[in-house]
Amino acid sequence: MATTEALSVIPASVLRNLSDKLYEKRKNAALELEGIVKQLAVAGDHDKVTSVIHLLTQEYTYSPQANHRKGGLIGLAAVTVGLTSEAAQHLEQIVPPVLNSFSDQIAGSYYACEALYNIAKVVRGDFIVFFNQIFDALCKLSADSDANVQSAAHLLDRLVKDHFRVFDSFDMATTEALSVIPASVLRNLSDKLYEKRKNAALELEGIVKQLAVAGDHDKVTSVIHLLTQEYTYSPQANHRKGGLIGLAAVTVGLTSEAAQHLEQIVPPVLNSFSDQDSRVRYYACEALYNIAKVVRGDFIVFFNQIFDALCKLSADSDANVQSAAHLLDRLVKDIVTESDQFSIEEFIPLLRERMNVLNPYVRQFLVGWITVLDSVPDIDMLGFLPDFLDGLFNMLSDNSHEIRQQADSALSEFLQEIKNSPSVDYGRMAEILVQRAGSQDEFTRLTAVTWINEFVKLGGEQLVPYYADILGAILPCISDKEEKIRVVARETNEELRGIETDPAEGFDVGAILSIAQRQLSSEWEATRIEALHWMSALLNRHRSEVLVFLNDILDSLLKALSDPSDEVVLLVLEVHACIAEDPQHFRQLVVFLIHNFQLDHSLLEKRGALIIRQLCFLLDAERVYRELSTILEGESDLDFASIMVQALNLILLTSSELSDLRDLLKQSLVNADGKNLFLSLYASWCHSPMAIISLCLLAQAYRHASSVIHSLVEEDINVKFLVQLDKLIHLLETPTFAYLRLQLLEPGRYIWLLKALYGLLMLLPQQSAAFKVLRTRLKTVPSYSFKEERFRRTSGIPYSQFNYGGGGSQISEDGDLNENLHDMHNGINFALKLQQFQQIQKQHHLHSKSQTQSRFVSTSWTKEVQIAEESKRAASELNRPPSRSSGRGLGQLQL
Q: Could you tell me which residue ranges the Vacuolar protein 14 C-terminal Fig4-binding domain spans (predicted)?
């Protein structure tokens, strides 16, 4: 079939001229043949090239006709020239018939020399495998009787020598190897058929075995050198395949003596793992497998290179290569586990580098090795866990369920070992776990938090420097969407907070505070709450250290007062209260608080009551109100001062937390502490007429209340005043003022109370609900007949003469003539207080007038519309029926 195929591509005229007796015709036929082969080579049709060579060999060089043999030689040279760089893969067919022609006595060795000369010029060093035969032939031809043959042989000899001078791989070792390996073995070792290469390898194994028995290791070295240089590093794939199987055969032949040659054998095999040809990679696995079976533990010195190569092959694109690599991997694992020469210290850096690879096959390979090495008692993988822990955690988010499962299994085993180990490097691993606790992958977060939980329980003092980082990882997880993570995170947080630590032992209070402060801005309520618990805990344990960082955290704590969560606000206030235990910090807190209310009126409206009430509960209510009043007394923003006082007054009258403060104020006229409190509040309460009236009613200073009411002028009685009055009337019906309503049972004794209430009634619009409520209440007052003398004494004494606290028998401020005032403390100059009220109100009038004029200039055309709308809202408010509930949320004020 080969001959038929060749005849189909070579014209009959070429074949005929190739055997012509005239040299010129043979030469021209060879040139045509060269062109034909060149086309076949370009088309990659090497099967037809092989058929052409077969035809030239069998029908020409081995022909009994001399001209045919001459034509065959020039034809083989033409084929080589036509193939150019691809000629090397056909040398096994081309060279032998040419060498055979050196002994042709009839056709003459001249044409054989000429043919080999032209072949050598093309393939150059690739024909080194035939050196021994070429050398032997040239040796004989140098003494040929024909001068032309001698001349041709001389030219060929010079070319061969020139090639060897520039051919690095040719040396004495190669020559020596060629002397012990038959050419047929070398030829078959690079054959395209596996069976021929296998048989050649078996023959090579036998040769090496004889050399080993004879102790001739120099020749063994030469053989390995030849296989390495001329085969495994050859550009021809079949040569490389042959070189690999040859090196494995050499190892098998050496058996127990192979170890001394491993430095030569293993590197070229490892180099072949990265070959572009998948079959070469496959045979590299096969070769190393056979080598490893022979030398076992002796090849541990190459473990890192082998591991690296297997790591790459585990992700090979060829399934057969992967399968071969898997078999080799299993064998290497067996050898490592039984070897005492394995160096884990040298291996870990390579493992750490490879852990970053994302390929699933490589990851599976790596986890397999980690598990195997951890199972070896003499290998301390736990000590090197920090080097590859991050890589294992990275695998928990792999798309492959199998890889996630394997990584989790490995991590679980390591965690169990950590629990049973007396000494573990918690610190380095804690850094990794902190990063992984913030992973986007749910399973990774859960595993990281679980590890942190165990570390907190086991780590003790080792983890002190990492508490801040751990806390920074745990707090966000407390609000995780996954319940399992939340549960573990909360448990860890409690464990962490329960550990008693000291700054002297490395506990960084500032770092913990910084983490807690940062988490105050978390979008999750649970995290913000735990951050505040940490601040409270730190204040309780390390107060002095925390106060050093007060300026760093105060702004965040104040902003947290605007938090939408009531629980968060209450906790923030606890922290503030704890800070405010020191006098200087207490005033600073109140100043900051008023400043924030001034900047954000919505905070005062929505959170004002809650904040003030909680501060009064946590701190002394009297202390809080005194400080607030002192600050507001000097407030330059009169509008804000009025709003703030109205808010404080409403809280004072309604909050259960301030019941003791109200009781003390009720004793203002008979108790020094009550009087002092009344005086401390009075100045700032003057910013709001209704607030000062409420304060007087609470303090039972009814005559002064009546005087304040009578002192009101037109500017005071505006919509805002009427709204506040409406609120007060309804508050008079609450339990807070039950004592006042009971005093109405004795109108003769509390005449100034009646006068004050009637004064308020006169200020209310008659159609308003508040008017009806107060009128109804006043209608229930009993009608008593007063002694004219007493009434005259009560009503006839000018107000200016009522300066309480002086000597002698005086009547009480509210008009009770029967009260003995000899035991009263220093009195209150109400006339002076009335002047103070009037002065402050005058400032408000001037301020209001100034604002009105300013608005009139800028927006005069909208003023009437605004007044109309305001009047409409006021009328609606005043006509609103009384209600027990204002409908506002917890801690909100309606001012």
A: 602-781
Burial class (CB in 10 A: 0-12, 13-18, 19+), 664: buried
Q: Mark whether 158 and 263 lie in a shared domain.
A: no
Angle between helices 638-654 and 689-698 (to 10 degrees): 30
Angle formed at CA 209 by CA 203 and CA 213, multiple of 5 degrees:
150
Asked if 586 and 618 count as a contact pair (C-beta separation under 8 A), the reply is no
Q: By the 8 A CB rule, do 234 and 275 touch? A: no
Residue 169: the pLDDT is 46
For residue 364, count other CB atoms closer than 10 A to its CB. 19
Q: What is the dihedral of CA 528, 529, 532, 534, to 10 degrees?
A: -100
d(CA 438, CA 446): 10
Write out pLDDT tens, residues 721-734.
999 999 999 999 99
One domain, residues 698 and 840: yes
What pLDDT is recorded for position 858? 57
- End-to-end Cα distance, the chain: 111
| 258-276 pLDDT per residue, tens | 889 999 999 999 999 999 9
Compute the distance between CA of residue 95 and CA of residue 186 in angstroms, rounded to an integer. Answer: 13
Match 């923003």 to its residue by tokens: 637
Residues 174 and 201 in one domain: yes
- Do the domain assignments include residue 210? yes
- Return phi, psi of residue 670, to 5°: -130, 0
- In total, how many domains does the chain have? 3
Judge contact between 243 and 201, C-beta under 8 A: no
How far is residue 805 CA from its own chain's centroid?
73
152 and 279 inside one domain: no
Q: Cα separation of 699 and 812, whole Å?
A: 13
The more confident residue out of 100 and 735 is: 735
Nearest CA-CA partner of 302 in 271, 325, 280, 276: 271
Contact call for residues 392 and 374 (beta carbons, < 8 A): no
Residues 772 and 820 in one domain: yes
Residues whose CB is less than 8 angstroms from the CB of residue 33 and which lie 6 or more positions away in sequence, other chains included: 10, 14, 18, 52, 75, 78, 79, 82
Give residues with Cβ within 8 angstroms of 434, minimum separation 6: 448, 452, 466, 469, 470, 472, 473
434 domain-assigned:
no
Residue 575, in any domain of the structure: no
Say what the pLDDT of residue 270 is: 94
Residue 353 placed within a domain: no
Q: Of the candidates 292, 310, 340, which is a domain's last residue?
A: 292
- The structure's pTM equals 0.69
Coil vs helix vs strand at 723: helix
Alpha carbons within 13 angstroms on the beta-carbon side of residue 849 total 9
Neighbours of 818 (CB within 10 A): 8
Among 241, 265, 292, the domain-final residue is 292
Residues 76 and 145 in one domain: yes
Contact between residue 177 and residue 230 where contact means Cβ atoms under 8 Å apart? no
**Which DSSP string do the residues of 67-116 spell out, in sequence order?**
HHHHHHHHHHHHHHHHHGGGGGGGHHHHHHHHHHGGG-TTT-HHHHHHHH
User: Token pair of 823, please?
Assistant: 């035991």
The first and second tokens of residue 448, run together, are 């990281």
CATH value at residue 273: 1.25.10.10
Using DSSP, how many helices (H) and how many strands (E) does the chain show?
Answer: 45, 0
**Are 145 and 175 found together in one domain?**
no
pLDDT 10s digits, 769-783: 999 999 999 999 987
How many Å apart are CA 862 and CA 858, to the nearest integer?
A: 10
Other CB atoms within 10 A of residue 388 CB: 22
Helix (H/G/I), strand (E/B), else coil: 485: helix
Rounded Cα distance between 870 and 775, Å, is 26
Looking at the fold, whether 816 and 694 belong to one and the same domain comes out as yes
